[in-house]
Amino acid sequence: MDRIEATQFTGLLERGITILQTAIAAFLVVLLVLGVVNLGIVIGRSILVRDVTDTTATLSLVRSSIDIVLYLFVIVELYQTVVAYVEAQSVVMAVIHAGLIAVVRQIITFKPDDYGPTEAITIAGVYVVLLLGLLIGFWVVHREIDEAAE
User: Fold this and answer.
1) Which of 45, 50, 82, 139 would disulfide-bridge 25, Cβ 3.0–4.6 Å?
2) In terms of Cα–Cα distance, which of 147, 149, 71, 55 is closest to 108?
């Protein structure tokens, strides 16, 4: 295979990758729409079926709604990451945002009662380490962006 054929072949591969990335972005949009519809159904059903004065039911609704909304934010961040790849932009900030949202979601939905004392403390410690690492990365990247803007 000579150099011209190799260049044409790699160009074809690049176009294929771009098409696949665009398809993934479209799939994420479909997931986002389905997630918003699901959120509306969960809230609508809860309002119609449950007594809003029942604190347990209300807290369950709030918890499940927050869980769904945070999933939707992760999907949005993943979409932005894919779009940044397609447009050949930096994806570091989008990845950090998606990671922060995912870890915060895990922390919010964490139920220590589902684990033994040692497991619960270990899992909580892992969440703290992940959150701190992502926050430090977030701070460093924002600092670099601010310094570059000056």
Assistant:
1) 82
2) 71
